[in-house]
Amino acid sequence: MLSICPNCKKNMGTNKRILVLGGGFAGVYAARELEKTLRPEEASISLINQENYWVYQPLLPEVISGLIGLTDVVCPIRQLAPRTELVMREVQKIDFANKVVTVSPGFRPRQLELPYDYLVIALGGISNFSGTPGMVEHVKPFRTLADAVSLRNHLIYTLEEAEIETDSDLRRKLMTFVVAGGGFSGVEVIAELTDFVNKVRQNFPGLRNEKGRFVLVHAGDRILPEMSESLALFAHKLLAKRGIEIRLNDRLVGASSEKAHLKSGIDIPTKTIVSSVPSSIPLVLQKLDCEKEGGRLKVNVNLEVVGCEGCVWALGDCASIKTISGQRTPPTAQHATREAKTVAKNVSAAIRGGPSAPFAFEGLGRLGSLGHYSAVAEILGVRISGFPAWLLWRAIYLSKLPSLRQKVRIALDWFLVLLFPPDFVQMRVVREAGIARQHLEAGEVIFFQGDLGDNVYLIQSGECDVLRETNGSVGHVATLGPGDYCGEMALLNDVTRNATVRARTAMDVLLLSKHDFDALKSTIPAFREVFQRLAQDRSTRTSSTGA
Amino acid sequence: MLSICPNCKKNMGTNKRILVLGGGFAGVYAARELEKTLRPEEASISLINQENYWVYQPLLPEVISGLIGLTDVVCPIRQLAPRTELVMREVQKIDFANKVVTVSPGFRPRQLELPYDYLVIALGGISNFSGTPGMVEHVKPFRTLADAVSLRNHLIYTLEEAEIETDSDLRRKLMTFVVAGGGFSGVEVIAELTDFVNKVRQNFPGLRNEKGRFVLVHAGDRILPEMSESLALFAHKLLAKRGIEIRLNDRLVGASSEKAHLKSGIDIPTKTIVSSVPSSIPLVLQKLDCEKEGGRLKVNVNLEVVGCEGCVWALGDCASIKTISGQRTPPTAQHATREAKTVAKNVSAAIRGGPSAPFAFEGLGRLGSLGHYSAVAEILGVRISGFPAWLLWRAIYLSKLPSLRQKVRIALDWFLVLLFPPDFVQMRVVREAGIARQHLEAGEVIFFQGDLGDNVYLIQSGECDVLRETNGSVGHVATLGPGDYCGEMALLNDVTRNATVRARTAMDVLLLSKHDFDALKSTIPAFREVFQRLAQDRSTRTSSTGA
After folding, report:
1. Among partner residues B145, B427, B524, which is closest to A483 by beta-carbon distance?
2. What structural domains does chain B harbor?
3. Interstrand relation of A118-121 and A126-127 (parallel, antiparallel or unpaired)
4. Which of A15, A94, A498, B240 stands the most exposed, by the fewest C-beta atoms within 10 Å?
């Protein structure tokens, strides 16, 4: 029960309410440090997070290859911060003036308002693909546990489909994997992905001779800009030796369901594009009326949000933080945990009275796994690479895990991988449904004549041609544009598509599944009429429509 | 690559094509036995299954409580049957006349047709809740791995919400759990569920004094009808001692989002209803033109489908099987694996020529876990209960696992559970979206005035009243019926509901989320017009509408 709850058995007294927003490294460690620093009668601590677990972010790439079990990389927040009240909801509004945070509804559609005396903002970043055509629809982000699981499932699906695909072009596409961004995260993802595909491929008789194509696209002139040049070069050579194509000074500027489009003009036909590059702060923080710096919340050296000193702190990826020496802090776990310490100190100073402490941690070093028993590391100025760096990387990350249960489980995972072949179970736990979006480049085909009708396509922008083949000759039937739709004929009559629909320009379309379409149509007669009316309009405009 | 693939490098020769449908115990063991019995040049074996993994069904209830890791209860089919070609698609049509099986599309919307010489049908059962109001929408089936994971996530969600809920009625509902069916599966589910909730509750400060209510509803006059009476009585007493309410001679006959409705007239207010009772064969088999018996495919003692002798076999839960002694075989793993042996023998007899063997396995015994170090067992006529039966249960099931990797991982899981507190991470891997359905009983409320508007409700059947409170008095605004809809006002204007909508009769409604509604509306202007027109129609019929 929350501290504001009238039924709560706890002594409400006059103690202060601290609200921590976010359950990543920054938020959870802030709550842990606050539990250590403050006595229960001094302040109550609540933490708001959409999930009830905390993710050990540095090991997330290992989830792709199944090196680490799905549930071993996470830990319940309640176990990490037992004195903190967890509210498993989404933060929807922050009101500095009235000191209230509004969270999303639960079983009942009502918002909950949580008042606070002290606020700690640690909401992290979100993937932000807006502005680039096709990115939202066709590029897989890599940031959360759900992203990692979904990428793993997608990889397994592409292998299963490649195995039974008879069209060699499509098989090639299915076996091509593009990762955008050559920083730590991108390098770890391409390394794990390559390892996984190459290992698992052995279980697919038809793919034993079908080598995968793995492409890493990076905007800079060397990968791993966070590292010294010699280590970056080591990593580059190692990845190249494993067959990974590294495209430097290039960038992903467009995506469709068929290909990755690069700035250099090159198109890579593929069904798998991963990116962890673009990031911004969550919408609720973007809307917040306070000073920003580079799109992040501006804080002073005490990590207080500028304008709300002594009351609101921000840390982690959502804050623009400079140490006392003027160094900008990178978005890593080692910095977030130190920031959490500083924030906890300063919150208790605000409660008890006393001076604030500035954030002064300058970083101990950098570590990056290259998969396959290799890594690069820079610790306190010393550069290490290869197997020793990999051992160090595992030892450090294992030792930093806050829960013994996780330590044991991950150590066992790592050990069992040595004994057994990799697992490639595809865990589709929930049916993906609802209205999907798709981006098409000019010339790409929405569906072919003869295909099965599994979706209705509603055109948001762009134009397409409807082409029908009769007796070997192809005729142009119609041109469709925004507000039009296509694909309903096959659905209504349960037959295959009677025309091919091809994008004339770049297009954005909505996909309504047969299942949802049928549900709407049978319930609301007017929906059916809409489609019938649209079809009529269309046929008066053109000769005939169909598809 | 499939054996029919023109690009396939394998010697197609004149060898026979065996198609196995289904990847449960029956299907996978049939493929394994066929691999043992037949040489590669005698026949190619393909197996069609929607998932690329096989589930160790007997341990599924342990996934609820997290005793077993999510991925440890499954194994890739390719590893269990390495010589079998796996097709990860859904079986959509079986054509006995032309000896062709059609499967669902993959990345491209085209069906694939797979010809066969010999067909083995092992498609199992599906949950079938049709016919009982509200069951499809509000009762959770327990049959697949996805069901188990989804139930686990739901339990964690109810605990998280109960913890912060201030309304004591709703908190009580959230802490009430109903399981329908007192056979093996139902008993194991209620036992695991009760254990899990009681253990995890310790992590929720507000729930430490909030005991859960656990109800098992069973139609017969004793639970575990599969077992002897003395063991059933032992189990009954043990469950009752743990605080589980057992309602005998009663049945679940209706469900809504607020309660379970029993045949005896009793309503149990709850947010969690689980059932594994109703079952039927998959639709593709129902449509099949062949003899059925009790809704299942009729087979002879050689497990040949009647009318297709020497060409089609059926086994497992989708077949109605009698042993040579006339005994009907139950749907258990021990029987499925023996049936698989018989089928493999008879398929090779058909290929090589020779006599068929009848199915003669009469069962070795029965085992059921009661959770919490207790079980009941009847092995070769000997009855065991309590801790010895539990040890036996674990030993037998561990020894029956086909993969060493799984054996080691599950043994470790069981061991680690003794050392560490239970994990209660909620793994929502994919956003649940799309058009949902809801069933309401008369008097239940769709939404309250003042609620947030997160859905539009489209009425399929039944009627509801729109009630608006102004200055303390409640006025009846309108009555809505099939084809009407409500809830769009709050959506269109981003405000809270301006009226309460209450079911006047039992109702079925479709829910269209704000997200999907906005997408449709902004893309197809005509959709917006439909809603506007409906609203107009409504306001001419009644005084005013709103909501």
Report:
1. B524
2. 16-50+89-125+281-352 (3.50.50.60), 135-275+366-419 (3.50.50.100), 436-541 (2.60.120.10)
3. unpaired
4. B240
